[in-house]
Amino acid sequence: MRKITVGNFRLDKTERDYIEEIMDSNWISEGKFVRRFEEEWAKYIGTKFSVVTNSGTSALIAAIFAVKHKYGIKDGSKVLTTPLTYNATVNAIVHNRLEPAFADIRMDNYCIDADILILCLAQHTGWGAWSHQYERQGDNGACEKDKSQRRDDRRRKQGGGKLRTEV
Question: FRET partner for 5 with CA separation of 20 to 30 A, picked from 58, 97, 154, 159?
Fold first, then answer.
């Protein structure tokens, strides 16, 4: 298995040939390789489309925009996130005309505390922007379990039927 490192990379002949072809095409940020990657990535993850962005910040802005519009989240709605994150997380929330609110982190993994996030979501209407820190994953399972439980509770109150979840 080939190890991927940060800040230190090696290119084999195939990669160098691709880079040379890209440079010769005068299309660094678009072109056939970008389209090919989008198509192959979409197939790999089982979706109809995928979109390459120029940065993680742009990807966050686009993802929050998509969720906001898919679920009809109104401007000014609160989005719970962690205070221990790169500023791009909060910037993407604000850029989408939403209001960031912060839930505390756990000291053992520096990720948002799922119990506090669940409590905040139960007390306020809103949704959460999850992030992982320093290659450590937060407790997604607790949030997924709580989301399912809240969805089931709402269905029981409404007498069944389909329900859109905000989180």
Answer: 58
Residues pairing with 112 in the sheet = 105
Does one domain contain both 71 and 145?
yes
Q: How many structural domains does the chain have?
A: 2
Give CA–CA dist 60/155, Å, rounded: 31
Look up the domain containing 33 and give its range: 13-45
76 Cα distance to chain centroid: 20
Task: Give yes or no for a contact between 162 and 151, defined as CB atoms under 8 angstroms apart.
Answer: no
**Rounded distance, CA 75 to CA 73, Å?**
7
Pairing of strands 127-128, 99-102: unpaired
Within 10 Å of residue 83's Cβ, how many Cβ atoms? 13
- State yes or no: pLDDT of 135 exceeds 50: no
Task: Answer with the residue of higher pLDDT: 10 or 6.
Answer: 10
Please state, in angstroms and as integers, the Cα–Cα distance from residue 8 to each residue in 15, 70, 135, following that order.
15, 40, 18
Considering the entire predicted model, what is its pTM? 0.61
Q: Which stretches of the chain are DSSP H helices? A: 13-25, 32-45, 56-70, 87-95, 114-123, 140-158
pLDDT in tens, 103-116: 777 788 777 777 77
